[in-house]
Amino acid sequence: MLEFISELALRAGEESLRYFGNLDPDDISGKATSKDLVSIADKAVENLIISEISKRYPDHDIFGEETGHAGKKSEYCWVIDPIDGTQSFVKVHPYYAISIALYRDGLPLAGAVNAPAMNRLFTAEKGQGAFMNDSPIRVSGCRTLAEAACATGFSLLRQNKVETPLARFNRILPHLRDIKRCGSAALDLALTAAGVYDGYWEEGLQLYDVAAGAIIVQEAGGIVTDYNGGNDYPAGGIVAGPAAIVEKLREFFD
To answer: Which of the 8 DSSP states describes residue 174?
Structure first.
């Protein structure tokens, strides 16, 4: 299964690169409910992914960012974000990713996050560990916020809900060594799994933003929770990383 997901993520990445730096203004539009962008590349990549999954697993459900949820007829469901980080993508910034995850009965089985412009493919399958470009990865050994470089995002700002995330950000920031904000939740999680970031938090996301990244973090030895320490992520916010950092970050969410 993971071989299929990995190959599909790579193919989707190649498709995205056909458009990277080659979009015209008419190829980009805004979603009606927010300041989020969508491009013809998002739709082309998602169509490719769905087509390949449907050929191989015609009975599986598919939940894609652009196409929504196609039925509920199977115990298996594919969760897809064709280009997570469209804002970066349209500005020809390499920090974007293709995210593909497979769920069974509501629980993650496997996932891949491909950052094609950075030549990094992150993969994981339940019980089999996590990998970047086929090399094993682990979350960092950082245990204190004073030594931590963490990542976050501001999805809610695009929905004009600014007070809560900004207030929380302002409380956390003085306690960290460094903060990164690059605009792709899937890639933030994958880099947290690889120990590049020591922790990650965000709110206002959808399942397709985090589905693959979350299982990669977990298989890399980290934990993923909502803001209350439960499993209601991303609806209840998401915090990820080594257990010690997640525990310390969560002190700011009570």
So the answer is: G
Which among 84, 88, 76 is positioned nearest to 9, based on CA atoms? 84
**b/e burial code for range 187-203 (CB count within 10 A of at least 16 → b):** bbbbbbbbbbbbbbbbb
Q: State residue 147's pLDDT score.
A: 97
For the chain, which ranges sit under pLDDT 70?
26-27, 29-38, 70-72, 156-163, 254
Q: What is the token pair recorded at 70?
A: 């196609």
Pairing of strands 149-152, 178-180: parallel
The pLDDT of residue 17 is 96
β 61-64/37-39 pair status: unpaired
Helix (H, G, I), strand (E, B) or coil at 128: coil
Predicted pLDDT of residue 32: 43
The tokens 């009965």 sit on which residue?
Answer: 105
In which residue are the tokens 């900004």 written? 166
- The percent of residues above 70 in pLDDT, for the chain, comes to 90
Distance CA(212)–CA(210), nearest Å, equals 6
- How far apart, in whole angstroms, are the C-alpha atoms of residue 123 and residue 114? 8
- CA dihedral 39→89→117→137, nearest 10 degrees, is -100
Q: Which domains does the chain have, with CATH numbers?
A: 2-136 (3.30.540.10), 145-250 (3.40.190.80)
Does the pTM of the predicted model rise above 0.70? yes
CA atoms within 13 A of residue 8's CA, in its CB half-sphere: 29
Work out whether the CA dihedral 133, 104, 36, 231 comes out positive or negative. negative
Give residue 130's region: left, alpha or beta (phi > 0; psi -120 to 50). beta
